[in-house]
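Try it yourself: sequence plus adenosine-2'-monophosphate, in.
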Amino acid sequence: VTKEVETLEKVKQQAEEWIREAALYIKKEMKGSFAVNTKAHQHDLVTDVDKNVEAFFLEKLSETFPTHRLMGEEGSFEQIKDLSGIVWILDPIDGTINFVHQESNFAISIGIFLEGEPIIGFVYDVMRDELFSSFKGNGAYLNGEPLPKLPKNALNESILSFNAGWMLKDRRLEKLVHSSRGIRSYGVAALEMAYVASGRLDAYISFNLAPWDIAGGYALLQEVGGKATNFRGEALNFLEKDTLIAANPWIHDEIINTIYNQDNKQ
Ligand code: 2AM
Ligand code: CA
Ligand code: CA
Ligand code: CA
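Structure, out:
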C-alpha cells in the first residue's frame, strides 16, 4: 500500500505538470483564432482547443502511464464503461462558453480514480492561476495552501450557485433565493465545486452534469468534509449524467428539503 501511495504521489506531480503545460497552450490559442462549434444546442459549445487538450492528455497518458485510462468529455469517454483500475476523468475545458465569450472563468478539471474511489483532484482556473488540488487523506489545497474543513453554516447565511435556466425549469428553486443570503452563477461547474470546497460558495446546484464536470471538484470536496449527492440524496456514480447538490455539509440536506419538501419553511 505504501508503494502504491508513493506511485500515486508521482501521478499527482505529473498531472500538475501536464495541467500547467495544457494551460499555456490554452492561453496561447486564446490569442489566435480557433474553430468554435455547437454540439447539441446553442448553449453547448466546443472548440478545437477543448479537443486538442484532451488529445494531449490521451497522448501523455499512453506514453507515461499506459495502464491508466482516460474518460474525457471530447470523445475518450466512449471507451470507458466501468471505473476499474486507474481512470483519469478529464474536462479539458470546463466553462467553454466562458472561454469563448469572456476569455476567463474556465478551468481544466481532473479527478483521478482508483477502483472507483477519487484519489486525486485538480481544478485549475487558468486565467487566475488558481490551482485547487487534493490527495485522498492528505487534504485539499489552493496554490499549495491547505484549505480548512468546511465550518458550521446555516442556509440563511449561505451563498448558493446555480444557472438561471434551472430555475426556469423548476420553480421550486425560487425558495432557495428567499432562504439564502444570495445566488451567484459562474457557468463553470468544476470551479463552482472548487469554490464550495474553499468556502467562497456554500453550495452549487445543477440538474444535469456528466462525470467530467464533477470528478475533480468531488475529490476536493471529500477532503474538506463537503457533501455532494444527486437531488435524491444518493451517492454520485461517475459513469452517468445526474443532478448535483455539492454543498457545505451543514446545509446540504436543508437544500434538498427546501426544494422538495412542500411543507418545509417557505
Ligand atoms: P462545459 O463548459 O464543459 O460544457 C455551464 O453551466 C456548466 O455546465 C459548465 O461547467 C458546462 O461544462 C456544464 N455543462 C454540462 N452539460 C452542458 C450542456 N449540455 N450545455 C452546456 N453546459 C453544460
Ligand atoms: Ca461541453
Ligand atoms: Ca464541463
Ligand atoms: Ca468541457
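One thing you can check immediately is this: Residues 40, 43-44, 73, 91, 94-96, 163, 187-189, 208-209, 213 surround adenosine-2'-monophosphate (ligand 1) (CB under 6 Å).
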